[in-house]
Amino acid sequence: MVRTPACQAGGRGFESRLSRKFSMKKIFQIGAGLVGKTMAHDLSKNFELFLADSNLNLLHDIKSELRHIHINHLDVTDTKSLRKWIKPADIVLLAVPGFLGFNALKTIIDCGKDVVDISFSPENILTLNNLAIENDVCAIVDSGIAPGVPNLVLGYWNAKFKVESFDYIVGGLPKNPLPPYNYKAPFSPIDVIEEYTRPARMMINSKIVTKPALSEIEILDILDVGKLEAFNTDGLRSLLSTMSHIPNMKEKTLRYPGHAQLMKSLLDQGLFNKDRIKETSNNLFKDWKLEKNEEEFTVLDINIYGESKNIHYHIYDEFNQETTSSSMARTTGYTATATINMLCNNLWTEKGVYPHEIIGSKKECYNFIINYLQEKDINIDIKHY
Hints:
Strand content: 25-35%
CATH superfamily of the largest domain: NAD(P)-binding Rossmann-like Domain
Distance between the termini: 10 Å
Structural class: alpha/beta
Largest sheet: 7 strands, parallel
CATH topology of the largest domain: Rossmann fold
Number of domains: 2
Shape: globular
Order of helices and strands: HEHEHEHEHEHEHEHEEEEHEHHEEHEHHE
CATH class of the largest domain: Alpha Beta
Number of helices: 14
């Protein structure tokens, strides 16, 4: 197992140099939830941060810790207010639930603002590419732990050799699971439910195949964790078009054994239907809410098989006691903040909508983001065989 080398811009003085260089940049962040709070802490070190959310309590909670940031109450569905608020922005960070993401992203692009997006909206965000080019905008999308990091990694190795197969498994889970769900949601419960209901697309023998979410459950022995179950979800997203030359690609979500079957039973009862999903989400939020400083972890395994070599990445991260940040907030949030810093370093200057597999094809961008995560003590182990 080896760790990737730090990129030339890295090293232990990395953050202080960023702070001096970018202190005048204005970052406008939309979303102050669990991941949003961690990103706000990180970005406020290097930039002038403007933070908006529809929840005033969340905003004031973060403001009490970060007195120097600017907060604003914002309904992201109010297009006029959104346009007015982001007018002074250098870069916008969009961190809203998926069902709000697409229209908000479209508005941001239409305003001519560069944007990093972690809303993971169900719509095909690549359809906004022409709009981004017309407005001279760079929009980097799906900038989280997954999708995000697996895309970055695949893009990097795809530029080096012919990839024949790609797969990854990922999960964020409590260290001390409680029945019946044995699960806590590190982000919006309605977005978790979306994973359980949206049909899972995969590439099999160069053809896109669709299977039900929660299908093909298997029990795996995961390094640093133990036995977990993996099941199909729709995590490949943009890879199905941008990497369609790769014959086989697949993604699965990890949970404690038994969780998928329980979710299937709720699905069969119609509790995830459109007319009941909001109520179900609200009810599950009570059981799935992470308690303050509750220990949890995120694990990600990526496999790339090629003609000349095979590559395996293993990422394992836990709740950080020092910063009281969840692992999902760290791994997802720091991928997004790394991307913002990458843009400010002018390592990526192309205009359009770009998922991370395209960003990763440029060595300097790959190195920068991987190094940034390692600077945050997120362990990334890589094995070549």
